[in-house]
């Protein structure tokens, strides 16, 4: 074959070998012409077919001229390379050298050496070829040419200009956000020629993967590069840069990785569980009693909880419990309560709303890691008040709040009612009031509405109601309060004060800009446009002075020059404005003017033409809906995302039982994904599903109904088959067998697929499929194999869902001839010991054992008309099997399979149907031990027939060895007697009576049973005297020690020996002994325990041949403790000979909360000295505390009275006389004082009365009386199980012994159950009252009455002063009196004289000024003006008259009186 043909064939072989070469490498190959190839071949001295000569060209030196032809690793010319000049950058030179070293397609590699030779001498060789050879080589050249042309075309697509390319990122890496402790992978695809060199940077610092293999893993395959960051921690949050570099330059791409923590400030620790150096342990967390998928209804209360076990248990350490909803951390609020008891974490949703629906996650953080549990909570809508109305909207939020403007958004409900929703009403309520005002007169269609007209500085809450033809829905949950204020002011308030108050105020001159007309606003734009309204936004003018700026908005219809002011009445304060009542379809331009006290400024630049209409379209219909079975009560629903949608809010999924046409929402809160698990379905229902999308514009059309899905546990792929074994082998085939998968995945196994591969010298080839059609059996014959070749096999099972994972590959199996065959069926099947729940099957081995001995058997059974089932999982080597767990009254058939190395043979012939029942009079084998200790098995039968015999067997084999067992049969009773029972006798002993209807029984002698029988036998041979009570010890008065025991059964001949340390002891000074035969009590007394008494004390009994023995060991710590107690009891006895304390000093708290110290004394005489001490200082007779000391014949007391901190201390009492002394001490500091307080708390808490209600003019008071109150007592008030916080409206306190809760200005929200929780020293005692129903009505009505009366009394018209009782005035003088008047409203004023109203005239001047001062002036009084006057004031709350007397006298009369 010619050199050219060899080259062509070698190239074809290389093509086959590089068939799986990476596409990146293929794309990097350049096109080449056939001329370049020929030049290259000729230049390297290869044989050519054109000229029948062989040229030998020597290689050129390394320093000679370089070639600009590019060749690959196989020295194939692949293109032309533009030379790189030596003036290139040093980085390019370094790159070329590096790429040449690693033999990659770079400039340093493609600029090949030794292409041309300086030598010109060569030798030619002529080669003759036949025509056939020449034609074959010509065909090969044509095929090679076509292949090179195809490669060239391919390279043109991948590299059109066949020149070098700057690296270009085809797929850029994407930023990732992950939880701490997880791994993340960044991917990208880059193209370029020559192949770029990739480098990864973290915050512009190169990543050394080799230095940190445990942290980073990089891959470069199939034109795709990736970086995997393992076990992310917080320090991995960074900007990652990918640098791709070749000779054309460098390109970079960036991706940000954000590692989220569940709580700020959490220590960076290894994830998952790791060692905690702080505590020196590794914490392991287990979550049990987990909450599952939960369902609730709006308005209900729901609790979620889990029990958390943290091991090991470290004192003063508790894990951190965090709750999440949809990945957002939850905090305690009026809607959410969280509790951690130390073992159980509980989350309580106080008042469910649809906003509460979502995925709830419990996260337990420890110092070693974290553990989580998640489950979904569904919230159903509350029942509607009217049929057909929509349900309430949800998720009301406030955005873009300004001085007098806010944008309110919400989400549409899942159920529109009997007709589509026509629009929404928005209500607002000022914080602190309970009045809801409607914001819009016309329903808005969009789920977004700008609310204007707010009062600056006030806070508002908003709610939304939906409207359809049937009516208006219930309102949504109110939004969070939002303040109407400038965003800059809000930012300053959030930031807090910038500097502390210094106490200095500086005055400066007025800024010259004050009084300047503001300039025009800037950046005017239309931010929202619908057919209902248009929203404008702008920026305040730069020139505006220091005073506030307001704005006027003007509009102009496009095509006209007339500008019309929109807000003519009141200018707006916010740089936002919503215009309503615009003509739909027409175009407008808008502009804004600024104004202040100096005037109105110039207008802003006008906006472009804005057409009134909806800019946001309804979402398009989502893609097809595909339901998939999940569990018995849930279905997984997936669908295609809406292709044409802006500002998608989410999707609603609806379900309907097929054929009912009644659609029910699966979720009441929109979900954004395209997959949702619909829970709460009924098992067995056939359901269809549909999905609709929504955004602010409304709902899309619902998708078409999905296919019917049966609500049933979903099916999965089966587990891999197991036990793949070789059943038979020949020269060219093998028979394989395997076991069916343990888990079928919920569906029947439809078949199996087999793979094989060859193994040679430990090297394996690729896996290849064996069977294209599935195998339904668990065996398969593999044909067309090669003899003496090793193969490995694996099997896959498949069901309706798919194909399982492959089984564990077999060991390499050699294909060679060997004789293996399965055995035949067993024979001689028969059944014994038929009972109601079991029977025993016996059989004989098969006649044909196969090519190897039988290794075991399998037993099958079935009911009369049922399917065959195997009794045991593993084969048995015995020829019998007890089949248990049968049902009484059911007939069964049995059969057996034999097994050998080759496999399991066919089944035997089945037995006849056998009824599972116990025949009347059936006996079982019983075991007996006689008085001599002989063990025997007894079987009795009352229904013996003529010729019947008892046939005993062991393990169902006839007994032939009589050396270990003796059979005795008398009448209907047979006894099998054991001669010398041992482990050799273990087994199943059965007895069959011939000539009967299968009367038989068996007894299994186990090792445990044999041991028990041998113990009984020993007791019968060697009887033991039983003890009712074993030897015990007790301490008596004076420290005397008593050893005693009680015998249960004995005769009068029973004798006792007293033994100490194996030495018999007798009665004397040290020991006193007694054996009461009437009670069986044996006693040994010792007056005092000494060191030499440490050891073992024994009572040894002999009663004929029976013996008994009981002992007590007193050594070590036990003896020392007993000796110590004995000495103590003796010392106590000595102490009690003189004055002593019978009960030591203690305290008690009376029902009036008085504290008394007391102790009981004994053996006291008048001469006995009694002394009290406090903190080591004796209380003398003239001390104030001496008055508190009391004494009786048997008790000493100290009356503390009401406890306080001054009584804390150490109290001590001492007794002393000539007979001896004693003392007692009570520490009432720290823990002791707290114990007294706890007891006082208990008395106070138990003395509390039930809660009562009292109404006042200010509100409602709940109160309870206690016997006494101290400041340390903890009292808490609860409303609806939630703790009440102190505020101006709700206050709690104590007055005397009254504990009260004041609710000022009560409202309907204050109804409910109230409780007072009084600490009782351990927990708390609650007194509860239900402030609702009639109790609430009566209290609330009384409150309103008292409030009205107080208002009336406070605002009643009355004269508050200024008028005298009597006025004496000389005739002719003028009288002027002024009275101070009060009343709200201002009262009516009139003057009365002698019960007749005065009118204003020349004589009487009546005035009422400022609503407070009423005056009367009488000009030139006369005697007729004397009389009784009154100032009468009156308003709607009451009337009052201030009376006074006027007396006029004459001067002459006065003179006469004086004379």
Model description:
The chain has about 1450 residues and is mainly beta. About 10% of the residues lie in helices and about 40% in strands. The strands form 26 sheets. A five-stranded mixed beta sheet has the order 4-11-10-6-7, with no helix packed on it. A hairpin with a 2-residue loop joins strand 60 (about 890-900) and strand 61 (about 905). Helix 1 (about 5-15) crosses helix 6 (about 130-160). The chain is flat, with a radius of gyration of 53 Å.
Any descriptors?
single chain, 5-stranded mixed sheet, 1459 residues, 12 helices, mainly beta
Low-confidence stretches: 1-122, 264-273, 498-510
Q: Which term fits the overall shape? A: flat
The largest sheet has its strands arranged as 4-11-10-6-7
Chain-averaged pLDDT = 82
Rg result: 53 Å
Topology overview:
Layout: H1 3-17, H2 23-27, H3 34-43, E1 69-71, E2 77-80, H4 90-101, H5 107-110, H6 131-158, E3 165-171, E4 176-179, E5 184-193, E6 197-202, E7 205-206, E8 216-221, E9 224-229, E10 238-246, E11 249-260, E12 275-276, E13 281-282, E14 284-288, E15 294-297, E16 302-311, E17 320-325, E18 328-329, E19 336-340, E20 344-349, E21 358-366, E22 369-380, E23 394-399, E24 405-411, E25 423-430, E26 436-438, E27 448-452, E28 459-468, E29 471-472, E30 482-483, H7 487-495, E31 522-529, E32 533-539, E33 550-557, E34 564-565, E35 576-580, E36 587-596, E37 599-603, E38 610-611, E39 625-631, E40 634-639, E41 650-657, E42 664-665, E43 675-678, E44 686-695, E45 698-699, E46 709-710, E47 722-729, E48 734-739, E49 751-760, E50 763-764, E51 768-769, E52 779-782, E53 790-798, E54 813-814, E55 827-832, E56 839-844, E57 854-863, E58 869-870, E59 880-883, E60 891-900, E61 903-907, E62 914-915, E63 926-929, E64 935-940, E65 950-954, E66 957-958, E67 965-970, E68 973-978, E69 987-993, E70 1000-1005, H8 1007-1021, E71 1027-1035, E72 1041-1047, ...
């Amino acid at each position: 074959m010619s050199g050219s043909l060899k080259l062509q064939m070698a190239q074809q072989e290389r093509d086959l070998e590089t068939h799986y070469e990476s596409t990146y490498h293929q794309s990097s190959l350049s096109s080449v012409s056939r001329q370049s190839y020929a030049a290259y071949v000729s230049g390297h001295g290869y044989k050519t077919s054109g000229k029948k000569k062989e040229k030998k060209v020597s290689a050129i030196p390394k320093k000679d001229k370089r070639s600009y032809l590019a060749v690959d690793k196989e020295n194939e010319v692949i293109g032309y390379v533009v030379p790189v000049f030596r003036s290139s950058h040093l980085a390019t030179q370094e790159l070329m050298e590096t790429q040449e070293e690693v033999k990659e397609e770079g400039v340093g590699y493609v600029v090949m050496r030794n292409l041309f030779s300086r030598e010109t001498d060569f030798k030619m060789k002529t080669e003759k070829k036949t025509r056939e050879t020449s034609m074959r080589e010509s065909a090969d050249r044509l095929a090679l040419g076509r292949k090179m042309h195809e490669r060239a075309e391919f390279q043109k697509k991948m590299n059109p200009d066949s020149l070098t390319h700057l690296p270009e990122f085809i797929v850029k890496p994407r930023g990732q956000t992950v939880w701490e402790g997880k791994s993340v992978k960044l991917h990208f695809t880059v193209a370029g020629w020559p192949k770029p060199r990739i480098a990864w940077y973290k915050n512009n610092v190169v990543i050394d993967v080799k230095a940190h293999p445990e942290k980073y893993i990089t891959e470069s395959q199939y034109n795709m590069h990736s970086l995997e960051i393992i076990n992310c921690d917080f320090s991995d949050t960074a900007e990652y840069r990918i640098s791709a570099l070749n000779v054309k330059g460098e390109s970079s791409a960036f991706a940000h990785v954000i590692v989220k923590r569940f709580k700020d400030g959490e220590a960076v620790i290894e994830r998952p569980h790791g060692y905690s150096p702080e505590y020196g342990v590794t914490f392991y967390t287990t979550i049990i009693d987990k909450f599952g998928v939960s369902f609730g209804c709006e308005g209900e209360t729901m609790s979620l909880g889990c029990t958390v076990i943290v091991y090991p248990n470290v004192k003063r350490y508790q894990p951190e419990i965090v709750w999440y909803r949809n990945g957002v951390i939850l905090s305690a609020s009026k809607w959410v309560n969280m509790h951690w008891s130390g073992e159980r974490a509980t989350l309580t949703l106080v008042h469910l709303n649809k906003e509460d629906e979502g995925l709830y996650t419990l996260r337990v953080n420890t110092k070693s890691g974290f553990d989580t549990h998640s489950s979904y909570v569904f919230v159903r809508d509350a029942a509607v008040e009217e049929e057909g109305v929509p349900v309430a909207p949800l998720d009301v939020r406030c955005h873009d709040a300004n001085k007098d403007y806010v944008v309110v958004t919400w989400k549409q409900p899942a159920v529109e009612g009997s007709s589509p929703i026509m629009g929404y009403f928005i209500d607002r309520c000022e914080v602190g009031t309970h009045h809801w005002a409607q914001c819009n007169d016309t329903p808005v269609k969009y789920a977004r509405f700008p609310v204007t007209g707010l009062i600056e500085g006030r806070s508002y809450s908003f709610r939304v109601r939906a409207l359809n033809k049937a009516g208006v829905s219930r309102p949504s949950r109110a939004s969070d309060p939002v303040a109407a204020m400038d965003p800059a002011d809000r930012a300053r308030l959030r930031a807090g004060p910038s500097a502390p108050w210094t106490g200095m105020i500086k005055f400066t001159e007025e800024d010259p800009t004050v009084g300047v007309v503001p300039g025009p606003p800037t950046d005017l734009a239309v931010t929202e446009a619908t057919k209902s309204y248009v929203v404008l936004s702008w920026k305040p003018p730069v020139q505006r002075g220091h005073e506030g700026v307001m704005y006027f908005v003007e509009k102009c219809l496009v095509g006209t020059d007339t500008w019309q002011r929109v807000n003519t009445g009141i200018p707006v304060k916010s740089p936002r404005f919503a215009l309503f009542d615009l003509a739909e379809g027409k175009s407008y331009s808008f502009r804004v003017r600024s104004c202040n006290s100096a005037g109105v400024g110039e207008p802003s630049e006008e906006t472009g033409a804005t057409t009134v209409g909806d800019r946001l379209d309804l979402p398009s219909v989502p893609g097809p809906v595909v339901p998939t079975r999940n569990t018995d009560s849930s279905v997984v629903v997936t669908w295609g995302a809406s292709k044409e949608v802006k500002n998608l809010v989410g999707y609603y999924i609806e379900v309907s039982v097929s054929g009912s046409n009644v659609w029910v929402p699966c979720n009441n809160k929109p979900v954004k994904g395209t997959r949702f698990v619909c829970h709460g379905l009924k098992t067995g229902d056939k359901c269809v599903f549909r999905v609709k999308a929504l955004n602010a514009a409304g709902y899309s059309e619902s998708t078409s109904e999905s296919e019917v899905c049966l609500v049933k546990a979903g099916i999965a792929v089966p587990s891999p088959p197991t036990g793949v074994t070789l059943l038979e082998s020949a020269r060219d085939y093998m028979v394989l067998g395997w076991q069916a998968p343990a888990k079928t995945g919920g569906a029947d196994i439809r078949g199996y697929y087999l793979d094989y591969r060859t193994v040679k010298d430990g090297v394996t080839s690729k896996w290849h499929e064996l069977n294209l059609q599935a195998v339904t059996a668990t065996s398969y014959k593999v044909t067309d194999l090669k003899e003496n070749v090793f193969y490995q096999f694996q099997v896959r099972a498949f069901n309706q869902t798919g194909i399982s994972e492959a089984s564990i590959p077999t060991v390499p199996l050699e294909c060679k001839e060997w004789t293996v065959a399965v055995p035949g069926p067993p024979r001689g099947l028969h059944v014994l010991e038929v009972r109601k729940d079991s029977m025993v099957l016996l059989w004989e081995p098969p006649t044909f054992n196969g090519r190897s001995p039988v290794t075991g058997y399998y037993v099958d059974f079935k009911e009369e008309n049922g399917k065959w089932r195997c009794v045991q999982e593993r084969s048995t080597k015995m020829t019998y099997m007890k089949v248990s767990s049968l049902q009484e009254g059911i007939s069964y058939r049995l059969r057996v399979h034999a097994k050998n190395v080759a496999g399991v043979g066919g089944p035997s012939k089945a037995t006849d149907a056998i009824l599972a029942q116990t025949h009347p009079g059936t006996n079982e084998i019983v075991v007996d031990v006689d008085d001599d200790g002989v063990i025997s098995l007894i079987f009795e039968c009352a229904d013996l027939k003529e010729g019947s015999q008892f046939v005993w067997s062991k393990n169902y084999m006839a007994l032939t060895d009589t050396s270990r067992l003796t059979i005795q049969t008398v009448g209907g009773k047979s006894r099998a007697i054991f001669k010398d029972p041992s482990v050799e006798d273990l087994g199943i002993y059965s007895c069959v009576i011939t000539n009967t209807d299968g009367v038989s029984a068996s007894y299994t002698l186990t090792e445990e049973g044999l041991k028990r029988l041998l113990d009984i036998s020993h007791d019968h041979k060697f009887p033991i005297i039983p003890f009712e009570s074993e030897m015990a010890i007790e301490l008596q008065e004076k420290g005397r020690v008593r050893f005693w025991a009680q015998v249960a059964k004995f005769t009068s001949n029973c004798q006792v020996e007293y033994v100490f340390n194996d030495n018999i002891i007798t009665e004397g000074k040290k020991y006193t002994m007694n054996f009461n035969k009437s009670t069986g009590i044996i006693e040994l007394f010792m007056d005092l325990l000494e060191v030499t008494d440490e050891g073992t004390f024994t009572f040894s009994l002999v009663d004929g041949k029976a013996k008994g023995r009981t002992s007590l060991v007193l050594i070590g710590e036990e003896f020392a403790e007993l000796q110590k107690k004995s000495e103590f009891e003796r010392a106590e006895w000595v102490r009690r000979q003189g004055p002593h304390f019978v009960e030591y000093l203690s305290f008690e708290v009376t029902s009036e909360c008085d504290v008394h110290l007391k102790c009981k004394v004994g053996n006291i005489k008048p001469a006995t000295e009694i002394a009290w001490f406090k903190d080591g200082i004796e209380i003398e007779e003239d001390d104030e505390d001496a008055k508190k000391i009391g004494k009786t014949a048997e008790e000493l007391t100290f009356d503390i009275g009401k406890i306080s901190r001054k009584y804390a201390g150490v109290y001590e009492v001492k007794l002393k006389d000539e007979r001896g002394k004693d003392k007692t001490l009570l520490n009432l500091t720290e823990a002791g004082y707290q114990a007294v307080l706890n007891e006082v708390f208990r008395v106070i808490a138990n003395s509390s009365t039930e809660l009562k209600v009292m109404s006042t003019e200010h509100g409602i008071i709940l109160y309870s009386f206690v016997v006494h109150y101290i400041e340390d007592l903890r009292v808490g008030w609860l409303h609806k199980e939630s703790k009440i916080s102190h505020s101006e409206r709700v206050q709690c306190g104590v007055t005397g012994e009254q504990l009260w809760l004041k609710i000022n200005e009560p409202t309907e929200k204050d109804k409910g159950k109230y409780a007072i929780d009084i600490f009782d020293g351990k927990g708390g005692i609650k007194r509860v009252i239900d402030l609702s129903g009639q109790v609430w009505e009566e209290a609330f009505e009384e409150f309103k009455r008292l409030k009205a009366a107080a208002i009336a009394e406070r605002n009643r018209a009355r004269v508050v002063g200024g008028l005298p009782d009597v006025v004496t005035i000389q005739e002719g003088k003028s009288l002027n009196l002024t009275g101070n008047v009060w009343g709200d409203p201002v009262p009516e004023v009139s003057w009365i004289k002698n019960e007749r109203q005065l009118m204003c005239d020349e004589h009487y001047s009546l005035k009422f000024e400022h609503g407070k001062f009423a005056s009367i002036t009488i000009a030139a009084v006369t005697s007729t003006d004397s009389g009784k006057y009154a100032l009468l004031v009156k308003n709607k709350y009451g009337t009052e008259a201030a009376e006074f007397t006027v007396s006029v006298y004459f001067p002459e009369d006065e003179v006469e009186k004086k004379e």
